[in-house]
Amino acid sequence: MSYCTQIKDELVGILPKSTCCRRALLFGLLYNTDLPKTKDIKMSLRFPVPSGTVMDYEQFILHLFEQQYHSAPFICKETRGAHRYLHIYPEHKQIFKTLMTLSEAKEANQAVLSDILGLRCPECTSAFVRGVFLSSGTVNDPQKSYHLEIKTHADGRADLLCSLFMNIDSMPGSTRRSGDVGFIWKSGTAVVELLNFMGATTGVFDILNTQVEREIKNNENRATNCDARNIQRSMSAAAKHIAAIAYLEENHLLDSLPPDLQATAKLRLARPEVSLSELAELHNPAITKSGLNHRLEKIMHIYESVKHASSDI
To answer: How does the average pLDDT of the chain come out, rounded?
Structure first.
């Protein structure tokens, strides 16, 4: 089962108790109904459904119509490859009149949409958005990418829907494709907020868990990269020290160093693979890492002085 199907199955299970919220949900489902341009054509909605839950979705829609209008729309099924659709024909004059008013709306603001649809409370708005998403929305698996999209016809309904999203502080990006407008959310935070607004709590927890897992993985990667850089820097520093000590030894200058520097230089040559902390403990008696760094700096200073003097000759 896809992630989008899981989300929609969860949303279908949320049935409003109040009449106003049921009406809002129903008009959300019907929001993208194709409106007839002539009297010979009936208004219809092509409703995508998962193949294994066609009956559940059909009963869900019939139940809403029965509760709200005490009548059932004509519904037929369509199969195209792996895709399943319900074609809904809501033969109801009031529904047609409301949807036509929405499509022809000239003034795009939340007040107009609320007035036409009778959105009387926050739950009404949530139910309405839930219905629009069920009939015209998709959401990607958060393991792959954050992407939630809702499509609507490029008429007054798109402008009104845009104003609703602005009113609930969930402003998406938008795109136009062959007569439709797609509203798109591409950040994890925005997708979580919209799913939560619609009531998809399970989907919200899935995304939050994914975000936590990604953060843990990113922290582990950062720690690994940091350790790798530290090891690389240590190896680079050790290589410089060994090269300097080897140069002093080749030029018979190692035995002229003070005893403490000789001891450190010989240990460094003998154990090139160990870290500075380990090298400090190998001294007899052991010295601190700070003391070891001080000795190595002195050796490097002597080496640089010798190199500089030889280059001047």
So the answer is: 84
